[in-house]
């Protein structure tokens, strides 16, 4: 609670400053570079001296979210000051950006004003890349004379301070490496760390050593968070997820989740290492995991048809992974219950043996049963609209109730089962691969598109008549229908799904 008290003290300081009444004073972005607004440069006459605002740029600053067109490697230059801004978006999420501020008006704007934007704080400094270390905090939302924070604001403030403390731990310049003997494989190292009793992954310095020694081979994927590369460590193939700088919160959250005690499971993507590499000019955020050459379930289903055994192997292994996430393991070396929040076919990978492992945990939510608190990530990312449960789309989900996130995952799991079942051949017939709701919404549906289809019309993905004539597909149809029920309380839990699929797997004598 000390961090929370500090936060409350800092952000309740009154901001009763007076700015100039001109356009720059009313619009604080007037002097920020990289805001997308072009301003005419001042042109001194032949006999005039150069004004300070027209002086050559001499200061290098880190930029994220406010990078001008001529910025390179997240670096901009200015004749004014470096700045960092924290502001609240339309969803109430805190967004931290930074960049270069022009000399003109900077002495006013670096003080910021409540008139500039009601939920925004700016801080400035004047040495190279100094704004990387600035951590402005939001002012409170309260009626006049009332400085008490709402519960939501206190939670957001607490989590932000928690994130910043952990972030600084990773940003420390730890140059030393540990010696890893020749002949040691990644499997050996991970086994040793598991048997040591920590159960939370490799030691930080071992991770950093591995990260420094990885050779990047080629890019194999790209998403809204960054890129995925095939890499090699001492000849072993690994996957390297390189996050965009603006996705640092997602990188931290995914790293934190993967290193949770007792997190390792054969149906969760195997975590190897995480590292931040900073050169002073820009930062690279790495997450290193097992490499699976079959790619995602989305890629696999587009190219591959399934028989009954392959379908059950995929569905059951995905259920096992999700069940491990959702389940709390009690004890001093226990594991919290975790909800994924972005489950979809693109976030499930296919292993060589035809089973699934669940990946992309950057939006995951943890539940602390000791304090009954839901640990929500600070990332500004949201889930994938096509896979959002009705209660997420219509904003009726209770964000303080962890079971609500669990049930939202179950809806998404039902859609994934639908994708798998379409590709199962029965009687020589199989459907082409399609995404859920492909015939009802555009290729990149909006919230409004999905809300209309899922909540207003109450529609669900269509199924072929052939499913009812096959025992396995008929059972899968019953499962998915109970997973994507409109009422979260009516949906199956993943444990129930796992038990049902286990019986089907056993009856078919399928080896997993």
From TrEMBL:
Stored SMART domains: GS, S_TKc
Where is the signal peptide, in residue numbers? 1-23
Instruction: Choose any GO biological process term that the UniProt entry carries and state it.
Output: cellular response to growth factor stimulus
Q: Name one Pfam family in it.
A: Activin_recp
Q: Where in the cell is it found?
A: Cell membrane
PROSITE patterns linked: GS, PROTEIN_KINASE_ATP, PROTEIN_KINASE_DOM, PROTEIN_KINASE_ST
Known EC number: 2.7.11.30
Q: Which GO terms describe its cellular component?
A: plasma membrane; receptor complex
Q: Which cofactor does it need?
A: Mn(2+); Mg(2+)
Protein's membrane topology: Single-pass type I membrane protein
The record's GO molecular-function terms, alphabetically, read:
ATP binding; metal ion binding; transmembrane receptor protein serine/threonine kinase activity
Residues annotated as binding ATP: 241
Which residues does the UniProt record annotate as the domain GS? 184-213
Q: Which top EC class applies here?
A: transferase
What domain of life does the native source organism fall in?
Eukaryota
Q: Where is the Protein kinase domain?
A: 214-505
The portions of this protein that span the membrane are: none
Which keywords belong to this entry?
ATP-binding, Cell membrane, Disulfide bond, Kinase, Magnesium, Manganese, Membrane, Metal-binding, Nucleotide-binding, Receptor, Serine/threonine-protein kinase, Signal, Transferase, Transmembrane, Transmembrane helix
Instruction: Family membership, please give it.
Output: Belongs to the protein kinase superfamily. TKL Ser/Thr protein kinase family. TGFB receptor subfamily.
Protein name in UniProt: receptor protein serine/threonine kinase
Organism name: Anabas testudineus (Climbing perch)
